[in-house]
Hints:
The complex is a heterodimer of chains A (414) and B (364). Chain A has 414 residues and is of the alpha+beta class. Chain A has 2 domains: 2-47 and 281-411, no CATH class; 57-271, no CATH class. Helix content of chain A is 51%, strand content 20%. Chain A has a 6-stranded mixed barrel with strand order 3-4-11-8-10-9. In chain A, strand 5 (123-126) and strand 6 (133-136) form a beta hairpin. In chain A, helix 2 runs antiparallel to helix 9 (273-314). With 364 residues, chain B is of the alpha+beta class. Chain B folds into 2 domains: 2-51 and 232-362, no CATH class; 59-222, no CATH class. In chain B, strands 1, 2, 3, 4, 5, 6, 7, 8, 9 and 10 form a 10-stranded mixed beta sheet that branches. At the A-B interface, helix 2, helix 3, helix 9 and helix 11 of A face helix 2, strand 3, helix 5, strand 10 and helix 8 of B.
Amino acid sequence: MLFNIIGRSFLNQKKALALMVISIAVGTALAASLITISFEIDGKVSKELRSFGANIIVEPKIEGLADISGQKRYLRYEDIIKTKTIFWRHNILGIAPFLEKKASIKKGEKGSEVTLAGSWYEKSLPLPGENKTFPSGIRTVSPWWYLDGTWPNTPDSAVVGRSVATRLGLKTGDTVSIDNKELKVTGILETGGPEDGQVFMDLENMQKLYGLDGKVSRVLVSALTTPMDEFAYKDPNTMSKAEYEKWYCTGYVTSIAKQVEEVFSGSRVRPVWQVAETEGKVLGRLRMLIYLLCFAALTASAIGVSTTMIMTLLRRIEEIGLMKALGAHRTKIISIFLSEGMIIGLIGGIFGYLLSLAVSQYIGRAVFDTGLEQRAILLPISIFNALVIAVAGTVLPIRRALRIMPSVVLKGAE
Amino acid sequence: MRRKWFLFFFRRSVSQRKGRVAIASAAVTLAVAVVTAMIGVTFGIREKLGTELKSYGANIIVSSDKGEGFDPSLTDRIRSIAEVEDVTGQVLGTVIINRQQLEVIGMDRGRAKEMGWRLTGRWPEKENEVIAGISLKAALNLKEGTAVSVSKDDNTREFIVSGFIEKGGTEDMAVIMSLKQAWSMYSGEGRLHTLLVRGRTGMIEQAAAKIRELLPDAEIKTVRQVAMAEEALLGKIQMLMLLVTIVVLTATSISVASTMGANVLERREEIGLMKALGASRSGISIFYLAESVLVGLSGGAAGLLVGAAAAQAVSKGAFNSYIGMPVYLPFISMIMGIAVALVSSWFPVQNAMKYDPAVILRGE
């Protein structure tokens, strides 16, 4: 009897049914997509924030004033790739080494002192003990550098910063004399930072040119980090053994810096605080923002879906009047409407889950350029959400329906 | 006469069906609230994130081309540019400490605090206190409270180091003085060498252009690192919010359409009766559409309030401060409320009018 009534009811109002299923599906799809997004928001936003540049800087240890004014110490070239062997190696997203030296630049009559720097723009380094390579170079730590031209690959070519180019009137293709060697300008570099006043060469070629084989003066590292919290600000030297262990194994910028220091001999590794702290703050704010938006969006869609259910069911008041007049018991009426609601919720939940697969992938690609990981756990969650929304939307009309007087309703007035 | 009847019917229709009108208004409220809140947050997030990113530093650097520096009053003129959020000036120079040439940065030290520089020790309080970059600590064997004699040409002064600053940049190897202290070391009193400007996010190029007009001879650079990263981040977040808004709006507009549609559908008999009594199609349309406008107005107004409150709650939760709402927001909300209500009842009304009054009134 119950199935008969429900079956009939579904057959006779396909349009209303479709509307309810659609609105529940959209509501649960939204919920599932938002959950998928909020699972990954930390990782994605952290990655985006890496475009702010290197957050760890490796320099030779300073032991006296002489080390500040004239550089005599260097880092070892072969240590660079060891950065990818530390505990948090998978969080290292970019490495760029620099060899720096004062040099005199001359073009015709005009000349000046500049910093000559050797680096890579893009280079795959073989990973030790693995059959893989790691993309490194300036591109991986400072994606905002704008190079008009190409990176110098030969020993007799260089790239000059925008300010240098303006001062000496240089263009791509010109030749310029650096420390009395003729170099061809292959591009003009623009960053808005101190690099605009420098001249760049290929790292290995510069090492050979100046007899500094195997030496670098500075390495910039870009690493995904856990935002600093109160614990992270404690001085590692005063930590207990257990605390130190915890600190060392959490991806704070300070603990990653410590681990990098361990693999670079004779180095002093510091976080770039400006970048690290901004990153932590922005990440915290954005995470909160996304969570709140998700919550607001869910509330809105739940209310919206319930309204739809209520309005659709209110149209069937006459039907309930008839049932009552024919002697249907309260429990019978409740079970009819509740089971209808649950069937609608079930179908809507399944459709909603399927829809969320598409929606979250689309949002992931549109916003972060990568897909989001799909989680099977969202299927039961979606169905549960849909059932809750559907049942919530049925309760009010049922209560209303139970109060009505059959005779009044059937007469046609309200 | 006709107007009188129209008003009579209209009042009756609304007052006798309060519940239905309320549900329809609630649905419109919801849709409007979602859009209002999203516009409010999207509008406010630029400013809020901009404040957070402030610690990242200047995005425009103005330096004097001929080396003679700027007058300090220039900072106020630059600050009055609409696209500029903040500006601060620095004095740059070198001094001799322990026979070594070191860089000096003279700046408003309150800014360093704001910019999230890390300090060990304490901020200078007395006139003769300075901060040193962290790298100088080991190099010069300094401690908090150490006195250093700083000289420039034949001008020598004693300063006390009150703390050490760590930024991860060239400042770590410099001596940080106040503007006054720096001016006391140099004869070029009262000049600033570099102006660090924070253009509002998204308007950095415009800000740079305006400064260029003001100072045609100065070298003006936009810091690509800061500018590009900010833009990229904001772009992503706003894109995310836009997409979420669209999805939520889909869910809520289904509910508006279904409630408004159900409202009209229920009243097919009424429409049939009106037709039978000789009402014109346009008369009936106007009657129902007027009702929709009422629903739209009340829903729009309520939606505006709810949405604005939601936007403020989100901002308070995420950024711990309230946001300013754009002035045009109330208009958008009201217009949207009315539009949503009209569109979602237009089709059902037209549909209902297709029926033959005789059939409807018989109860089919």
